[in-house]
Amino acid sequence: MMKDTIFSTLQKIGKSFMLPIAVLPIAGLLLGVGSTLTNPERSTFIKEGSFLFKLFGVLTDSGNIIFGLLPLLFAVAVALGLAKNSKEVAALSALIAYFVMNMAITSTIKNFMSLEDLQKTPGLLSNFLGFENTMNTSVLGGVVIGLIVSILHNKYYKIKLPEMLSFFAGTRFVPIISACVAIIVGILFAFVWPIIAQGIAALGTGIAGLGVVGTFLYGFILRALIPTGLHHVFYMPFWQTALGGSATVAGEHLVGAQNILFAQLANGDVISSDVARFYSGNYPIMMFGFPGAALAMYHTAFKENKEKVKGLLFSSSITSFLTGITEPLEFSFLFASPLLYFGIHCVLGGLSFAIVSLLNAGVGYTFSGGVLDFLIYGVIPGNERTHWIAVLAVGIVYAFLYYFVFKFMILKFKIATPGREENVKEIKLHTKADYLEQKAQKNEQTNTTTSTTNSEETLSAQILTGLGGLSNIQDIDNCATRLRVTLVSGDKLNEPLLKETGAAGVFLKGNNAQVIYGTKVSNIKTELEEYIQTIQGDETDAN
After folding, report:
1. CA-to-CA distance for 513 and 108, rounded, in angstroms?
2. Measured between alpha carbons, how far is 368 from 364 in angstroms, rounded to an integer?
3. Whole-angstrom Cα distance, residue 128 to residue 366?
4. With contact defined as beta carbons under 8 Å apart, do 470 and 532 qualify?
């Protein structure tokens, strides 16, 4: 039962990711193409300061902001997707909680921690969403807040408080409790995140001298850390410190893989595979592996869903191939199947780094492992310097490998990748008698329902009747004390019956009714909406 619950929750989380994931392909194209063409060190055909250069700069910034907001988008999406009702309240609460959490992290660092000590771990601190010297917990932080808010929302969105505090009851209580819990989460992150980051940095130190095994571990860990955002902490020491090697180029002693690689490029030297092993392995995955995986997901999607997911999978593949931005595809199956992500994808990622290193490939990059960087840092310098043909050969093999392995895993373990999400549908009953019999069986199974719930349904039923029935209602809303309802016909409103439900007064102007319940109206409105959804569902089943 616990396993089924966890699996079900992961599926729901994965499904909620689809909304922010849908915007990532276009953001990736804008960012990848724009950053490539506006980098003075590698853009040779667009003059710096020209109109095109400035235009591509705008495109770069426009794509970059979406990735900068990605953790926030995931926080809102997860809360929205997992909320049982009043989803707009859950989304707003997640937004509030995410900012509060980050402010708590920033303030905790400022008041209780040493900024100098934290800066000793490269990549740990960053400026994020206007917060200076904070810890960017990346998508993981957003998902954590989204999960917490959804749990709080589902538990408290109908909470009742004493009369004097009833204004803050129901859905209004959710952002309050979410903000309070976010403070605690932020404080915990501030103290726990540096420990995790230091451990990852130490892990990097440990694998630096393990040769080809270390290269495999580097590729595996790099892919595995993508969801946490701590991959920056992991790879930065290899790029910028002696962990990535040391060499003398043109008479200058250099340390760090990135510094050595660019010096060798500028000096016309053969690119050392010992330096480029921290880069070259990404190309087979991003240019070939992910498009192969996307094709497998398309072919295994349910027939009726293929058209719906084709656009997402195709555009994500193009983004990965051109720019090396893989988040749209990675997040589409990460939570649907951690086994597929960590057990297959990350292992294949590690093998890619190890294989191209053994083949002496020397293709680096500054942005990511897409075809744009591949041309600039592999093809243009020449195969005799970069051995880019070896990378291309491995990539072609990886396209088929990812396709067949993903297809086998998806079908074998019935993984809910895009287009394979379970659509829960009631079986259509053939006769009214069948419906009534099943309805009676359901009633027997729910006899343990509390009397409080029964009384809420009875009250909602009376209010609905007083408003003229379901067919007489166009819209339901509320303010601080009043239930505001737009009716089809105001003549059908039953004022005496509404007063029997506890209404202090009823105002009717045309087809617009206001029923005064006081500060408890928020819960009354929520319960009424849920009751309406229930009877609408029953009517659908009966048909």
Report:
1. 50
2. 9
3. 21
4. yes
Helix runs in 335-450, H state only:
338, 346-358, 371-374, 383-386, 388-413, 432-445
Closest to 283 in 3D by CA, of 189, 207, 371, 151: 371
**Statement: residue 434 has pLDDT above 50:** no
Looking only at the bridges linking them, the beta strands covering 125-128 and 131-135 are antiparallel
Rounded to an integer, what distance in angstroms lies between the CA atom of residue 369 and that of residue 322?
A: 9
Q: Domain ranges in the chain?
A: 208-423, 432-542
Say which range, 223-237, 248-262, 419-433, has the weakest mean pLDDT.
Answer: 419-433
Tell which residue, 142, 140, 147, 139, has the closest CA to residue 82. 147
Q: How far is CA 181 from CA 69, 74, 76, in A?
A: 22, 18, 16
Strand order across the beta sheet in which 482-487 lies? 473-478, 482-487, 512-516, 505-509
Does the structure show a pLDDT above 80 at 172?
Answer: yes
Among candidate residues 191, 368, 342, 344, the one with its CA nearest the CA of residue 279: 368
Distance in angstroms (rounded) separating the CA atoms of residues 268 and 291: 33
In CATH terms, is domain 432-542 a member of 3.30.1360.60? Answer: yes
Spatial separation of the C-alpha atoms in residues 32 and 147, rounded to whole Å = 31
Average pLDDT over residues 63-87: 87
Are 289 and 403 spatial neighbours (Cβ–Cβ below 8 Å)?
no
List 512's β-bridge partners, or say none.
486, 509
Give the total residue count for the chain.
543
- The rounded Cα 531 to chain-centroid distance in angstroms is 32
381 contacts 373 by C-beta, under 8 angstroms = no
pLDDT for position 63: 81
Measure the CA–CA gap between 519 and 412, rounded to whole angstroms: 54
Using CA atoms, how far apart are residues 524 and 502, in angstroms rounded to an integer? 11
Asked if residue 479 lies in contact with residue 493, where contact means CB atoms within 8 angstroms, the answer is no
One-character DSSP codes across 172-214: GHHHHHHHHHHHHHHHHHHHHHHHHHHHHHHHHHHHTTSHHHH
- Between helix 211-224 and helix 173-207 the angle, nearest 10°, is 170
Burial class (CB in 10 A: 0-12, 13-18, 19+), 18: middle
Average pLDDT score over residue span 126-147? 86
CA atoms within 13 A on the CB side of 268: 0
- Looking at residue 4, the DSSP 8-state letter turns out to be H
Number of H helices, E strands in the chain: 26, 8
Cα four-point dihedral sign 223, 227, 228, 231? positive
3-state SS record for 307-375: HHHHHHHHHHHHHHHHHCCCHHHHHHHHCCCHHHHHHHHHHHHHHHHHHHHHCCCCCCCCCCCCHHHHH
Terminal-residue alpha carbon distance, the chain: 33
Token pair in block for residue 333: 């199956």
pTM: 0.63
Residue 428: pLDDT band with limits 50, 70, 90: very low
Q: How far apart are CA 528 and CA 525, in angstroms?
A: 5
Average pLDDT over residues 349-365: 93
Q: Is the pLDDT of residue 40 over 80?
A: no
Q: At which residue do the structure tokens 């190890």 appear?
A: 354
